[in-house]
Amino acid sequence: MMSIIVPTYNEERYLPKLLDCIKKQAYKHYEVIVADAKSSDKTRQIAKKYGCKIAKGGMPAVGRNNGAKVAKGDILLFLDADVKFDRNFLINGINEFEKREVDIAGIYIKPLSSNLIDSIFFGIFNLWIATTQFFYPNASGGGIFCRKWLHEKAKGFDEAIKLSEDMDYVKRCSKHGKFRILKTAKAYVSVRRFEKEGRPKVGFKLLLSALHRIFLGEIRSDIFKYNLRYRR
Length: 232
Prior knowledge:
Blueprint (H helix, E strand, L loop, with lengths): L1 E7 L6 H9 L6 E7 L6 H7 L3 E4 L3 H10 L5 E4 L4 E2 L4 H11 L4 E8 L4 H17 L11 E4 H6 L11 H9 L5 E11 L2 H6 L1 H17 L17
């Protein structure tokens, strides 16, 4: 069984689209856990309407950890609320995950946008995670598969990290299990942050954060002013 965990905060616009994608999946042996950070909109009502479990949320790392605590599945799938995918996403992902005997895996992500700059940015990101997967694991919170025993072995997401806690998570998990990027499970991600803050600004922040992690370690202060509780 797979447990799908989605941290949310005021996601009434995007959550129904994700839950519709999940509902249409060819693979059916799953549960959905929405870890909500006290949304003031209809996020919780939507989650209940779709039959999701509700867990206590907070910042993304907190929500993911709390969702994992109540998960019944032996495989966890962490998703952001603003992703979409085709009906074979789960079955392709789980089949490749098992066939390659992987313990934790990331996925390739594409932008929900026709903007050329977005395509270039995501292309660079996908090339980066593909190239580094064998020696410096990286993956986006838009899609991470992980065996529950490994999540518990690594003690979950580090809730003290302010940015790129997903990258730190897969890096730590890879010390105890096999990490790879899946080739057959791809997701499409909203570019709302790029549109709201501006592509150059967000791109520069992400570049600086990557360099910070490489040379100075994990980001434990809000030096990049990256608002994870984002809503549009």
